Amino acid sequence: MSLDEDARWLEWVTKQFETIAGEDKEIDLEEFKTALKVKESFFAERFFALFDSDGSGSISLDELLKALDLLIHGNETDKLRFLFQVYDVDGSGSIDPDELKTVLKSCLRESAISLPEEKLDDLTLALFESADKDNSGSITFEELKAELEMFPEVMENLTISAANWLKPPDLDQKKRQTPRYLTRAYWQNNSRKLLFLAVYSLLNLLLFIVAMLRHSYGGPWFMVAKGCGQCLNFNCTFVMVLMLRRCLTWLRATWVVRVFPLDQNILLHQIVGYAILGFTLVHTAAHAFNFVQMTESSEYSLWEYLLTTRPGIGWVKGTASLTGIVLQVLICLMVLCSSTFVRRSGHFEVFYWSHLSYVWVWILLIIHCANFWKWFVVPGLVFMLEKIVGIAVSRMGGLYIVEVNLLPSKVTHLVIKRPQFFQFKPGDYVFINIPVIAKYEWHPFTISSAPEQSDTLWLHIRSLGQWTNRLYEYFRELESEALGPGRLATSLRKRRQLPRAQDDLFSSADGNGAVASNEDGAIELTMYRQNSSPSGEASESGAQGLVQPFPDGLGSAERGEVRRRISAKLTENHRFCNIKCYVDGPYGTPTRQIFASEHAVLIGAGIGITPFASILQSIMYRYRMRKQNCPSCKYSWCENIKDSEMKLRKVDFIWINRDQKSFEWFVSLLTKLEMDQADEEPEGRFLEMHMYMTSALSKNDMKAIGLQMALDLLAKKEKRDSITGLRTRTQPGRPEWGKVFQKVSEENKGKVHVFYCGAPTLAKVIKAQCEHFGFNFYKENF
Length: 782
Hints:
Elements: H1 3-21, H2 29-36, H3 41-51, H4 61-73, H5 76-87, H6 97-110, H7 117-131, H8 141-148, H9 152-156, H10 171-174, H11 184-189, H12 191-214, H13 220-241, H14 245-251, H15 265-295, H16 302-307, H17 320-337, H18 340-343, H19 348-355, H20 358-368, H21 372-395, E1 399-407, E2 411-417, E3 429-433, E4 443-446, E5 456-462, H22 466-482, H23 488-507, E6 513-517, E7 523-527, E8 530-532, E9 538-540, E10 547-550, H24 556-573, E11 574-587, E12 599-605, H25 610-625, E13 628-629, E14 636-637, E15 650-657, H26 667-676, E16 687-693, H27 705-718, E17 730-732, H28 737-747, E18 752-757, H29 760-773, E19 776-779
Parallel strand pairs: 12-15, 12-18, 15-16, 16-17, 18-19
Antiparallel strand pairs: 1-2, 1-11, 2-5, 3-4, 3-11, 6-7, 7-10, 8-9, 13-14
């Protein structure tokens, strides 16, 4: 560190200290806890005790500077000595198993990870046995240092993440950088969109100029008004064309998708919407100024021009001014209610109902402008045809929700009986209407089941707005009612049906239950809910995804207890039902391009996994169809999965969740996908999964390094992750996208296409990285 950087750091820490300490110039324990923002008081108290070198019960500026200098600027040995002192709770100079367990328990709480006491014991023993090289029953500093040196990438950045507020802002970040919109990579990756916007802008400019020249006789304000009016004729029609979902879905299967940015139709729809607002405001203002000039040589006043039909302006009984004002109000209202803060703040219904006023906008435009119908007639007929077909398809036959699973984080898993002729592609979405929730509301959700699953459709719906919350509460209340006195007979009948399904599930190793033994002789049972579908065939929803081990020597009574607990888990949040619903779709999304990719990277954030659940199931179905088996040694492999329909050579699936419970949504599906790839392939695994839990602290943090080391050691021993039960190890924190994409780039599996579904803020980060590496980026929009 240079002298200037050291001086800047000292000035910054002093300023932060004065802010925290207050008038007494000392930081007490409570102030320290608040500043450090730690969840678990154990670490705050241990850090405080080590920072307070004189044992006065408070930290002075000198003590703080000394401790922080060690943590931020110290060498590896200094940092390790501090970490060892944190773990050595009694100050004996060594760490015994009970101290290590106390530390790991606090690490779990700090990372918001919930594990049973038995698993905590396993983690403690795994780390302790690995570090205690001499089997002395305690871990010395040298032994801990040797253990940590097995993680060199951790040693380089070991610090207290919560103390980052004491680091001064990085001056390098303040340096002026080239805006990404001016980089070559941005123009290459957005060429279709930029070309389209250029053509769109030139077309508007041409229409504006031609209309102005044709009306030059009326003065400058009149010319501007007419120019904007002609642009509005085009845009008020084009905004509708961009939402012809059935036509766009069909066009995605043609060469047109390689020329026009069909996958960004929602973004273009929004851009055109803002253009309409701008043209409307200028059009109205220009007419108002023109009316002011006209009042100087006319018998009519300004308010008569604006608010009456007396001047006779307009082709339908002089109503141009009145309809223009109403149109201005409606368009402003539609744009305001379609803003992100309205749609994302749980008020989707406000957006939905206000947007339906487009019907009145078109009617008023036909009355307002004599030429609008010429622009509108062809697209309008196509739009009406799409609506009629959609209504006919959605109302044809009876669709019913046959099962419901209430999952963690208020996610509702709907299982809908699939219509006989309902065909869709992986990643497609539908609009669903459930009359018992809201009679006239339709909401779009991605289909999370694979097209190869012929009997049912799956929808996973996260409760974020009014409608989705009503949906979740409706089925939760139904479940409560089912347990009431009036439903005892039904409840008893369902409970009697469960043991038969469980016996089949525990004794089978077919598609409805998967049984495999690991190296320790334990039995890994992945549970997929088995029941009889309306057609009498077994169906599979995998909603609960329970993974339960059967250790050696477990008696029949103990196994019966495990079955009883699983039965309770199944009946608690799962129910069969027969609720009427209507489905409009399916409609295509950018993910339809996945099978034309060579190397696909699927990134789902939270419930954004839903389109990829369908895609992964479909991919692995095709993968299994091409799998070869050796008749002699039973070795299985997939020689070449590349064909005319699917060019994929490699798939990387990345799922990012905030908390542990969210992984339960699809853990059974992911376990099954892992089992499909139990055998190593000649060219490496076709599908690689990467799980990230953002609430968990990274390995570089002193409050988490012990836990992450223990999780790594136990995962290697048990061949299973302790957090999810998958074979794929769950990584703490957020992905380092630069390193992730660098690894993807080095694999050289062909052209990389990145597909993302999740929060818009993360989409911007991933898109910027894709532009840097030259990857194609697709974001799920509907």
